[in-house]
Amino acid sequence: MRNLLRFIIRYHFFFLFLLLETVAVILVVQHNNYQRAQFLTFSKSIQGSYYETSGGIREYLSLRQTNQDLYKENTLLRNQMDRLVRNRETNQSHGIDSIPQRQFSYISARVINNSVNKQFNFITLNKGRHHGIEPEMAVIAPTGVVGVVYATSGNYSTVIPLINRNFRLSAKILKNGYYGSLSWVGSGYKEAILEDIPFHVEIQPGDTIVTSGYSAIFPEGILVGTIADLKAREGNFDAIPVDISVDYKNLQYVNVIRNLLLEEQRALERISGND
Amino acid sequence: MIKLLVRNIIRFFVLVLLQVLVINNIQVSGFIVPYLYVLFILLMPFETPNWLLLLSAFLLGLSVDLFTQTPGMHAAASVLMAFLRPFVLEMSAPRDGYEAGTFPRVHYYGFQWFLRYTVILVLAHHFILFYLEVFRFSEFFSTFLRVLLSCFFSVLLIMLSQYFIYRK
């Protein structure tokens, strides 16, 4: 201790210099918006490239699962395409312009950081503002709803997933169309609850829950999960337990959805709401 | 001694006010701003203890920062300049050292000595200041050009001040 003190006193000029310079630089970074933004961008980009590398390794290790998911999705899409082509043909025979304006566009992205064991989980994607991603866009995976974009930087964006206590989603029961509010309970990463479903609605374990499309962020009819064992419902009759279909533990490729008509819908609803 | 202290304190305030009220409002071709206030650090007596040198440079920079709303930038640059001053003085000392009772001025040690002393320290100060302001190295050379140009005007002002104000 004595030696340390002597050392400091001996080189007090240098230490004082370091101290004052540090104070000055802290002042610069904390109180000048531009410099702070630069500093944060720098640290974020380092963080981002680290996550990208570690994400790449994880990705390689589960190629098999990814392939299976893609295969399934291909089948699904092919089915849908078939149906669409048929619809179009029937419509054309009636002489109606059947090509509606496109409402949703999809941007694919890769998950480079992910957490499932916190109360407020976040996901980081490898695409950002430069790729057209903006806050409040929907994020889905081949297996269902993932979450909503929370913030974006140039090349990265963060997503609030379904398994975040702040997340709420308007979802409905596919077979009868009753809709409610879906949220996460904070326990397992597969368990959510669906609230506000009237008690008289008949439900069974295994019924499919999909997005309602009322939020204007998610398209209608995207898989969210299935109703879980109803025994858990006894305690709280209002909350239906739901098995989340997305496996957050091995989430890799997602699609970010841009609603091209969002502005139009919001503007109209604003006008209506003001009256 | 007291007289010396008072004179330095007055110089501190005069230079800060001159800088923020007058010189900051003069802009030579848009982005070049000369910084005359560093003259205070240059003119501190030889015998000033190092810690006092650093502290007063910090205060000096901070006061300029207050008026330009750039907390920390001028302080950082001034502190670095004060830190370098003893080394530059030692480096450019005359053969028999600095005489007691003299001050670092043109009057005592000549034009050439003072010019070299000024250019080195002002360059260091401006270098830190401008790069802190830009805060990235991607436009290194355009920033460096600004450093050199501003440095030129600052040194010009400082040298002129030696002949106009400190004439004996």
* Rg on CA atoms of chain A, Å: 25 Å
The total of beta strands of chain B comes to 0
Distance between the termini of chain A: 74 Å
CATH class of the domain at 168-245 in chain A: Mainly Beta
Secondary-structure-based class of chain B equals mainly alpha
Helix content of chain A: 25-40%
Task: Characterize the biggest β-sheet of chain A.
Answer: 6 strands, antiparallel, barrel
Instruction: Give the termini separation of chain B.
Output: 20 Å
Domain unit count of chain B: 1
Mean pLDDT of chain B: 86
Beta-strand percentage of chain B? under 5%
Poorly predicted sequence stretches spanning 5 or more consecutive residues of chain A: none
Structure class of chain A: alpha+beta
CATH architecture of the domain at 168-245 in chain A: Beta Barrel
The percentage of residues in β strands of chain A lies in: 25-35%
SSE string of chain A, helices as H and strands as E: HHHHEEEEEEEEEEEEH
Under CATH at level 1, the class of chain B stands as Mainly Alpha
Strand order of the largest sheet of chain A: 1-2-5-4-3-12
Walkthrough of the structure:
The complex is a heterodimer of chains A (275) and B (168). Chain A is 37% helix and 25% strand. With 275 residues, chain A is α+β, with helices and mostly antiparallel strands. In chain A, the strands form two sheets. Chain A has a six-stranded antiparallel β-barrel with strand order 1-2-5-4-3-12. In chain A, strands 6-7-8-11-10-9 form a six-stranded antiparallel barrel. In chain A, strand 7 and strand 8 form a beta hairpin. In chain A, helix 2 (12-31) packs across helix 3 (33-61). Chain A is elongated. Chain B has 168 residues and is mostly helical. Chain B has six helices and no strands. Chain B is globular and about 45 Å long. The interface between A and B is medium-sized, with 21 and 21 residues.
